[in-house]
Amino acid sequence: MDRKRAEALARLAALAALKREAELAKLAAVAQSRARLQGALQTLKAVEAPLDPGEAVSDPALVGARLAHRRWSEAQSRRLNQQLAMVTVDWMRQKPAAAKAFGRAAVLEELAGKAEAARKAEAAKGE
């Protein structure tokens, strides 16, 4: 393999590596947002205390406050679930692009390595 072709493959491999890193960074950012939203939903579910029937008899104001909190909590849960759905769609779109960029970079790195090895072998043979 001639020197120009080996250099061209090396440049393509470098560009593919940059593209791979960019796609993986995008995927990581979306995955981080997704994990944050999932954590917020889990926290919201964990702090929700069940309503004790004994409290309903003794303190109606407490029941009203608990019901208001439950309505707020359900609204927050709906909002977080909607955001999570949108972020999950982004994540699902980014995943194949990152995989494709990763594969291209791997193949081009392998081809560039083989081209460089062939060029060195030809140079050594010519000496």
UniProtKB/TrEMBL annotation:
<protein>
    <submittedName>
        <fullName>Uncharacterized protein</fullName>
    </submittedName>
</protein>
